[in-house]
């Protein structure tokens, strides 16, 4: 029995190991990697292999299996293969009902196939689970317009029934710390009346993306004033991108316009409550404005999301000294 060393075990640093992923975890990781590199067909094949390996193991792991179907669905969607996308999303949801990602992916596929009633139902279901999902809010607005056009004023009566999401599956109750809720309610109503009524078209969103990228390039060159102009133009085209607000906040910080920085970070966090940079930059701005309590609160929120964030830990020490 002492000969175990002789087996070609997969040692770390063993040349072949990354080449042939064969466990579910490795296959999924390889699929994710291909997906990030835009190789969707390859990613799809890797997720498919992971599914076969998982199903061959016989022990059921519905969460893992659901994620693999949902990830493969994302590949199909990227490649414009809407029917397979819908099939995989449906498999994912049969394993783990009320998962947001497969619902959103299936909604996008239905929308692309102009099956607006079905898309409407999926977007609506997502909003029952979590009413802060921006893409679902936008989707509902687009579908409502399309359905009014195609089905007329009685369109709601002609929809398939919308599944009732059990409270246990509803994320919105625990997605935010409670004290944020009142703030959100206040700020939401202001927002909705002003700008949120105009849903940006796909063209607007694309224009906004290009302008944001131009802003990012200017930041890299150290031209923060010009970058602010680009980000502001971008936000006029579409004000749904959290990063545009937090990037503009960075520019305001550099230019010592701290109140503006705070405002932009707050907008960024309304759109994405886990935008770590927005928390960090708002904490920096609060600190510069000598509002150490708010600064400390932002850093604490950030560290709940990313406990190992070094700069935030350092900033917390500095703010702590000023708190007492």
TrEMBL record:
Keyword Ion transport included in the entry's annotation: no
Gene3D superfamilies found in the cross-reference section: Tetratricopeptide repeat domain (1.25.40.10)
GO biological process: protein targeting to mitochondrion
Main location: cytoplasm
Region (Disordered): 1-22, 176-204
Biased composition annotated in UniProt, kind: Basic and acidic residues: 179-193
Entries under SMART domains matching the protein: TPR
Swiss-Prot/TrEMBL TPR repeat ranges: 242-275
Localization (cell): Cytoplasm; Mitochondrion outer membrane
PANTHER family: MITOCHONDRIAL IMPORT RECEPTOR SUBUNIT TOM34, RNA (RNA) POLYMERASE II ASSOCIATED PROTEIN HOMOLOG
Self-association and partners: Interacts with HSP90A, VCP, ATP6V1D, KIAA0665, AMPK, and DMAP1 through its TPR repeat.
Protein name, per record: Mitochondrial import receptor subunit TOM34
């Amino acid at each position: 029995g002492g000969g175990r060393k002789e087996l070609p075990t997969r040692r770390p640093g063993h040349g072949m190991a990354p080449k042939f992923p064969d466990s579910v975890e490795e296959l999924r990781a390889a699929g994710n990697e291909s997906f990030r590199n835009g190789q969707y067909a390859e990613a799809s094949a890797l997720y498919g292999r992971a599914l076969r390996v998982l199903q061959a193991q016989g022990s059921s792991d519905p969460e893992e299996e659901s994620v693999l179907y949902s990830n493969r669905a994302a590949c199909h969607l990227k490649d414009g293969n809407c029917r397979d996308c819908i099939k995989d999303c449906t498999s994912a949801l049969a394993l783990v009902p009320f998962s947001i990602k497969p619902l959103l992916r299936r909604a996008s596929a239905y929308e692309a196939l102009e099956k607006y009633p079905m898309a409407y139902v999926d977007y609506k279901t997502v909003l029952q689970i979590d009413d802060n999902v921006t893409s679902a809010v936008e989707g509902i607005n687009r579908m409502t317009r399309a359905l009014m056009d195609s089905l007329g004023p009685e369109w709601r009566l002609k929809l398939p029934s919308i599944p009732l999401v059990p409270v246990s599956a509803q994320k919105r109750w625990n997605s935010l710390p409670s004290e944020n809720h009142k703030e959100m309610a206040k700020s939401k109503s202001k927002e909705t009346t002003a700008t949120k009524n105009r849903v940006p078209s796909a063209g607007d969103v694309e224009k906004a993306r290009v302008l944001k990228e131009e802003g990012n390039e200017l930041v890299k060159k150290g031209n923060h004033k010009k970058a602010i102009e680009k980000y502001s133009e971008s936000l006029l085209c579409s004000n749904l991108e959290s990063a545009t607000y937090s990037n503009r906040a960075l520019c305001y910080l550099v230019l010592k316009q701290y109140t503006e920085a705070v405002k932009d970070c707050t907008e960024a966090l309304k759109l994405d409550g886990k935008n770590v940079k927005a928390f960090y930059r708002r904490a920096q701005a609060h600190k510069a404005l000598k509002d150490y309590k708010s600064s400390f609160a932002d850093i604490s929120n950030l560290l709940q999301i990313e406990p190992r964030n070094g700069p935030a830990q350092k900033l917390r020490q500095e703010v702590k000294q000023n708190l007492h």
